[in-house]
Design brief:
17 helices, 406 residues, Growth Hormone, Chain: A
């Protein structure tokens, strides 16, 4: 086989792997998008203290954070396949435990089940890193954004599954839904079996101190932008079903449709975000995402109609996509190949630790400050992210000027 033919075959294999990872991402995220549609409502029903309505979501996101470090260890020692298998089994266990918690009307057990769901989702977040590893450097941003675009399928699959199965376990609302969701990670394992994944990275002879990695400007900027993207998105998204159904009088199907529109807006831009980053750079795309998130606040404060909620949540989702894909692309420049597992685990620990806090804070803010106060809380962290991005850009320009020929 000549060189051109071999190169073409390698590119086809790479694209095939990326598309398989796209499907895996879609299936794992469908479990989460379904969970988001109903978790706060179930929490509100099962908990005696309504301020704890979003506690299951907070537990879930804490588990996403807690899974980051163990996942990094499993990935580095046993490889991507073993880690993703563990994540899928955790998601299935979480769905089955959630069904049991609903049957028993047990809020504590529902929180425990949410931890298993979160652990599986946390491990599933590494599909975007696996995409970066199987792609060539030129295709890396597109591979990351494409795999994350798998969430478009989950945006329809998860909420639609909730709508059509919520009464199957009557009189136990949503029990049938969790039994259905338990099957999706198992299907994911079947798809994963067809993918060719990279082997575990070579062990570092002299490991770079983690503090050195964390202090690099690219890492700091990527981590902060990522945590602001996820934190601001989670703050509003978590309380939206409660605000719509319990305070504004909308039907459950209306809030599910809004969450569905939000999820589509989160992932649909992934088909083009990578190309936009390649053309305009990660920093400009991140700034555009922050602007869309700020616009979400303006729309959210403008009224309480169905379309105010739908448009605001769509802007929130698109803003998250631009910020998070940009941050993930930037993160890939912050470490050497042998450092990637530790750097990725540390990044996700930071990002999802903040997300866990915002999930709990969402219920508290909503109960104490109302919908307006909840929305306004997005603006300060957005300002911090933009200021840090400007600082990083100045450092980049200064470094480029220092090495430019006289």
């Amino acid at each position: 086989m000549d060189t051109a033919a071999a190169t073409a075959a390698q590119e086809r294999a790479m694209r095939r792997n990326v598309w398989l990872l796209f499907c895996c991402q879609a299936l794992i995220h469908a479990t989460m998008s379904g969970q988001v549609t109903m978790a706060a409502l179930i929490g509100h029903t099962l908990s005696g203290d309504k301020a704890l309505a979003t506690l299951p979501v907070a537990v879930q996101m804490t588990a996403v954070m807690a899974a980051s470090i163990p996942a990094g260890i499993v990935f580095s020692r046993l490889g991507r396949r073993a880690g993703f298998t563990l994540g899928a089994l955790s998601s299935t266990a979480g769905a089955l435990l959630s069904a049991l918690a609903i049957w028993r009307a047990d809020f504590l057990l529902y929180c425990v089940a949410s931890a298993f769901v979160g652990g599986g989702f946390g491990i599933g977040q590494h599909y975007r890193f696996a995409a970066a590893e199987v792609a060539t450097p030129e295709y890396r941003a597109r591979a990351i954004s494409l795999v994350m675009a798998g969430g478009v399928i989950s945006a329809f699959l998860g909420p639609e599954l909730v709508k059509h199965t919520r009464d199957l376990g009557a009189p136990y609302l949503f029990l049938g839904t969790y039994l259905a969701l338990a099957a999706l990670p198992l299907v994911c394992l079947g798809v994963l079996a067809a993918a060719v994944l990279p082997p575990p990275p070579a062990r570092e002879k002299a490991a770079t101190p983690i503090g050195t990695i964390l202090s690099r400007p690219a890492f700091v900027t990527a981590a902060v932008v990522g945590l602001v993207a996820f934190g601001t998105m989670n703050l509003v998204m978590t309380s939206t079903p409660v605000e719509m159904t319990l305070f504004c009088g909308f039907a459950f199907s209306d809030s599910a449709t809004v969450i569905q529109a939000h999820a589509v807006a989160m992932y649909a831009p992934g088909f083009v975000t990578g190309s936009l980053i390649g053309r305009f750079g990660a920093a400009r795309i991140i700034a555009a995402g922050a602007a869309m998130t700020a616009l979400c606040v303006a729309v959210g404060l403008g009224g309480a109609s169905f379309w105010h909620f739908a448009v605001a949540l769509a802007l929130l989702g698109a803003g998250w996509n631009f910020m998070f894909v940009g941050a993930t692309t930037l993160l890939a420049t912050a470490y050497r190949p042998e450092e990637r597992m530790r750097a990725q685990a540390a990044n996700d620990f930071i990002v999802f630790g903040t997300t866990a806090c915002t999930a709990f804070l969402s219920g508290v803010l909503h109960a104490k400050a109302g919908w307006a106060g909840l929305n306004l809380a997005l603006l300060p962290p957005l300002a911090v992210a933009l200021a840090l991005l400007a600082w990083f850009r100045r450092r980049q320009r200064a470094a480029a000027a220092a090495v430019a020929p006289a």
